[in-house]
Amino acid sequence: MISFAFVTSGKAYLISQTTLTNSIMRIKDSKEEVVEVNGTRAFISGNQGETYRLRMELQEGVEYVRRVFKKEMNTRNIANLFKNTIYDKIRTRMPYQVSGVFVGHDETGAMRLFHVDNYSAVNETHFVATNYGIYFLYGLADVFHKAEMEHEEAIEFINHALKALKERTAIDTRSWRLDVVKESLKVETQYIEI
């Protein structure tokens, strides 16, 4: 499923597709693709069984570190835990075919955005798009995305992106989930139908 995320000076935005349909066939319908792990929002896409397994492994890994080492994991640590899990499986006969987008705070309170691909490469960036959406969204990000965006500008950028995806993709892209992570660690989640 398509997702994209970006960070500004005070907020982070994670937009993910909730329903995947083509013509009259509903391929996937899930509002639980985004999971909260220790204050970090994670969108994991790929094969359904593998994404479920990796979400559970992430939550168990964070809980293990909390109990054994008495440490809280930040967004960078969680992205690296995900990367290590994928890397451990990469040389087996059945490597994971998943990728992840991680949005949250670091130890200084600054917003961070990480992308981990199915080859376990980690990338810290200010904008990321996944799956079929990358062909359309990076061009829009060049025009609209700024590091110092206000919330209204960010919503305008999201609206442009969703409109472009609806007009240009062969799959139905009407149902979306928007997670806005604020500096105060509050998260607003809303569902968008276009």
TrEMBL record:
Gene3D superfamilies: Glutamine Phosphoribosylpyrophosphate, subunit 1, domain 1 (3.60.20.10). InterPro entries: Ntn_hydrolases_N (IPR029055), Proteasome_sua/b (IPR001353), Proteasome_suB-type (IPR023333). GO terms for biological process: proteolysis involved in protein catabolic process. Keywords: Cytoplasm, Hydrolase, Protease. It holds the Pfam family Proteasome. Coiled coil: none annotated. The gene is PSB2. This is PSB2. SUPFAM superfamilies: N-terminal nucleophile aminohydrolases (Ntn hydrolases). GO terms for cellular component: cytoplasm; proteasome core complex. One of its GO terms (molecular function) is peptidase activity. The keyword 4Fe-4S does not apply.
